[in-house]
Input
Amino acid sequence: MPEFICPVCGYPLHRRDKALKCENGHSYDIAKQGYVNLLMSNASSSKRHGDDRTMVRARQHFLGRRYYDALAGRIEDLAVKYSPHNVSLLDAGCGECWYTARVKKALENAGKKVHAAGIDISKYALMAAHSRGGDIKTAVASVFSLPIGDDSCDIVLNVFAPCAEKEFARVLKKGGILIRAIPLEKHLLGLKKAVYDAPYENPPVSPELCGFDISEICDIKSSITVSPHADIEALFMMTPYYYKTSAADQAKLKTLNSLETLIEFEVIVYKKP
Output
């Protein structure tokens, strides 16, 4: 199972009262919301680690309205298809664990035994994850320095999060599966047209990853109507565009009560040889 390891010495962490401790005496308090902070202080020079409260709340609202159900359903199906009976599942960049919880439930509904963990650099996302309940273990950490032991995971999820293929290959067992979801070129183009005078497409991303074989590629393309205004606002605020857009451009959304936009995803299944 994806047990946490000490980010200082690499030894396994075990729960002792309200903390995780390793045999070398390093100790990490478990927050009241259930997560543990395993992000090394020098792991990032940024004062802001990951998504803030505004982005997290917006994403919770939008995902709760089920606009991305087609994506989640495809990820669930692929996880069930490629996983063994006993599944060690890690979501690398888990956010509020919306996808994590859905995949875990789908695996369990398929009769599989699941041990799940989620890693995200945002403590606010993991605070929100705790409200979902369940028994997904969560830790604040970078996907580029996963506090997870070598060869310990059957499946790694990587949904709209930075891709750290070397770390994913390290923690996956031989024959383990990486399920990665990325936006395609026209994803949310309708939102961009509503905001920007010169909307642009997303740059294409090569599906190839060093150290992995591609098992399957699935594209999901459709159009959604986002309504009412609160949903449009949530969609915009959960994206990086929100902090990169002028007040004048942001104001263009204030009068909209309905927005039609393309959603386009690519889900790629990789196998560790």
